């Protein structure tokens, strides 16, 4: 790829990646045009009483693709929200869902506020009003459009959305109302494992990429995660859980960046300890067991093997690309690498694990949550005991035949107990991330026109979306 401009908006960069992969497919030009376009863009302004004043809030919901319904995508609360950004994020959701075989079209929402400037009651008012705007225009519903958490939102906001949506439903519509939003608290129809899902997916995906010895050799690295030096930008939901699982797998977290500063310690940081410090003091600044760097971005250019941007878009750009030392960029955030930085880093031989694949763990587990809401039964409820007693029977038969009793450790290794909901969620997520990576990698290795993993991921996604349009019989 040769980028013709030096600066692209976020949406333009998604279009650029789309075009690059599209040229390697055999998909008809009119169908490509349909896949590329955002199907519905809803821009809204609504008044909310904040203190003694009325504030007019700017917000968006974009449904990028209706090739499968419902549309699916998070809601972002940030002062930087704009239409270009929400359209880019919605488009990425379409391709992301296709890559991990989640049967949704892409969507995304954004509310242009800085959450830290409001108290909980004010945020609740804004969230509920935003939800009622979505209801009015049919932009939310279990079969229409299902939001989830994103930057600046979490389970609390999702429960306000659910409650507002449910309030507006007739009793005959209530049966599936819980499926109108995912990322809810477990007590309100959420699923165990959703909170950590995106970070856990980042870990599974990176672990899989690092398991291919020939790819690691080309980067001058050993296979596996153990001992690899990792830097993480953003210790929020995605960054914290990614860092936690990397550390548990034996990687060394050497640097962390937050909105107000960055820290580095070549010997390793304890993620839990840093998180606790931020919680206690409200800031990463002056964390005592590391070197404080001069600004929040400096750490991205420090020595490491894997760099995990997990904060915002366009963080790796023409301003810092020449200083990046990582051999692998594991995109936890959406759109963290600009096209010009990507071009430069790929030429340098850096491996970029693209956002639309790597952070798909959140939507994958959201899909499980939605299925749970529509089926009205917790995963594992029907078969847990059955499997447990079957396993016990099998073990006692083997013990009888061999004349040897299994030790406690052997029993615990065999995982005789039937699976809980969270075991099934982790297992479904791991299977999804591992098999999706290998699908993308296979295409990348086979098709000479696809020079990098992002192009290969787009190629896989475009073909899957095109296939579902083909079934409609409209396009050639
Ligand atoms: P979050 O709000 O939980 O965390 C973001 C973190 O980044 C915060 O700790 C914040 O202080 C920090 N931050 C903000 N500006 C920064 C800067 N300039 N430098 C360093 N740190 C900074 O958000 P999140 O849900 O973890 O989302 C992060 C990214 O991951 C976003 O791009 C989002 O779209 C993407 N993502 C999130 C999910 C999800 O399930 N939450 C799923 C897929 C993708």
Q: Secondary structure elements and their pairing?
A:
Blueprint: H1 10-22, H2 29-36, E1 40-50, E2 53-63, E3 71-77, H3 83-99, E4 105-111, H4 120-136, E5 145-149, H5 155-167, H6 197-210, H7 213-219, E6 229-233, H8 237-248, E7 252-258, E8 261-264, H9 271-281, E9 291-292, E10 306-309, E11 328-330, H10 339-347, E12 351-353, H11 355-358, H12 361-375, H13 384-402, H14 408-413, H15 421-446, H16 453-470
Parallel strand pairs: 3-4, 3-5, 6-7, 6-10, 10-11, 11-12
Antiparallel strand pairs: 1-2, 2-4, 7-8, 8-9
Bound molecules: nicotinamide-adenine-dinucleotide (NAD).
Nicotinamide-adenine-dinucleotide (NAD) is lined by residues 149-152, 198, 233-239, 257-259, 296, 310-312, 332-334, 359, 362.
Describe what this molecule looks like in 3D.
This protein is α/β, with parallel strands linked by helices and 476 residues long. It has a domain at 38-188: Leucine Dehydrogenase, chain A, domain 1 (Rossmann fold), CATH 3.40.50.10860. The chain contains 16 helices and twelve strands. It has helices at residues 10-22, 29-36, 83-99, 120-136, 155-167, 197-210, 213-219, 237-248, 271-281, 339-347, 355-358, 361-375, 384-402, 408-413, 421-446, 453-470; strands spanning 40-50, 53-63, 71-77, 105-111, 145-149, 229-233, 252-258, 261-264, 291-292, 306-309, 328-330, 351-353. A seven-stranded mixed sheet has the order 9-8-7-6-10-11-12, with helices on both faces. A five-stranded mixed sheet has the order 1-2-4-3-5. Helix 6 (197-210) crosses helix 12. The radius of gyration is 23 Å and the shape is globular. The protein binds nicotinamide-adenine-dinucleotide. Nicotinamide-adenine-dinucleotide (NAD) binds next to helix 8 and strand 7.
């Amino acid at each position: 790829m040769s980028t013709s401009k030096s600066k692209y908006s976020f949406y333009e960069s998604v279009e650029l990646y789309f075009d690059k992969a599209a040229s390697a497919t055999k998909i008809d030009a009119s169908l490509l045009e349909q896949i590329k376009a955002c199907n519905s863009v809803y821009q809204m302004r609504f008044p909310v009483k904040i203190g003694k004043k009325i504030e007019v809030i700017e917000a968006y919901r974009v449904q990028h693709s209706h090739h499968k319904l419902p549309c699916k995508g998070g809601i972002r609360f940030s002062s930087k929200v704009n239409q270009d950004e929400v359209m880019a994020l919605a488009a990425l959701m379409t391709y992301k869902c296709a890559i991990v075989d989640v049967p949704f079209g892409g969507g995304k929402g954004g509310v242009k506020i800085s959450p830290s400037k409001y108290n909980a009651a004010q945020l609740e008012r804004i969230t509920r009003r935003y939800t009622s705007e979505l209801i009015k225009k049919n932009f939310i519903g279990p079969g229409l459009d299902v939001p989830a958490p994103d930057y600046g939102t979490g389970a609390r906001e999702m429960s306000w959305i659910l409650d507002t949506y449910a309030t507006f439903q007739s009793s005959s519509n209530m049966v599936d109302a819980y499926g109108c939003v995912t990322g809810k608290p477990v007590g309100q129809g959420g699923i165990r494992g959703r909170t950590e899902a995106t970070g856990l997916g980042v870990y599974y995906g990176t672990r899989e990429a690092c398991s291919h010895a020939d790819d690691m050799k080309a980067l001058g690295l050993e296979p596996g995660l153990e001992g690899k030096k990792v830097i993480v930008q953003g210790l929020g939901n995605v960054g914290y859980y990614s860092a936690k699982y990397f550390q548990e797998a034996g990687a060394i977290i050497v640097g962390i960046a937050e909105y107000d500063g960055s820290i580095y310690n070549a010997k390793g940081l304890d993620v839990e300890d840093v998180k606790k410090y931020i919680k206690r003091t409200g800031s990463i600044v002056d964390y005592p067991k590391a070197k404080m760097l001069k600004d929040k971005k400096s750490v991205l250019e420090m020595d490491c093997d894997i760099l995990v941007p997990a904060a915002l878009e366009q963080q790796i750009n023409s301003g810092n690309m020449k200083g990046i030392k990582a051999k692998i960029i594991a995109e936890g955030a959406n759109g963290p690498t600009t096209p010009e930085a990507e071009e430069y880093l790929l030429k340098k031989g850096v491996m970029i694990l693209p956002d639309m694949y790597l952070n798909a763990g959140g939507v994958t587990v959201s899909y499980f949550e939605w299925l749970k809401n529509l089926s009205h039964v917790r995963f594992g409820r029907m078969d847990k005991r059955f499997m447990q007693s079957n396993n016990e029977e099998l073990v006692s038969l083997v013990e009888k035949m061999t004349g040897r009793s299994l030790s406690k450790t052997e029993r615990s290794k065999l995982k005789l107990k039937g699976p809980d909901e969270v075991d099934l969620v982790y297992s479904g997520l791991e299977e999804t991330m591992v098999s999706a990576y290998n699908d993308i990698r296979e295409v990348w290795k086979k098709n000479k026109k696809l020079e990098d993993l992002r192009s290969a991921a787009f190629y896989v996604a475009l073909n899957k979306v095109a296939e579902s349009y083909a079934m409609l019989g409209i396009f050639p």
